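User: I'm new to structure prediction. If I give you an amino acid sequence, what do you actually give back? Let's try with this one:
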Amino acid sequence: MLADGPRAERLLALTGLDADALRSGLADPAVLGAVLEFLAAHEPDLCAAAEHLGVAPQALIAARDSLT
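Assistant: Good question. You get back a string of structure tokens that encode the predicted 3D arrangement of the chain. For your 68 residues, that looks like this:
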């Protein structure tokens, strides 16, 4: 996701995170939830991330739901 410049900028802008907070928060459920919520809000981002991770988009939605 962060390799795609426009997508990365949108992620940081919409989540309120900066690159350092994102990196350091990978184990933080709140940060993970923010990223998964970002993905869930825009299907093309969700599908691209799922494809890159080798999982079904529904798995990312289920992960988001488990954090709330």
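You can read the tokens as a compact description of the fold. Here is one thing that stands out. The longest helix spans residues 29-40.
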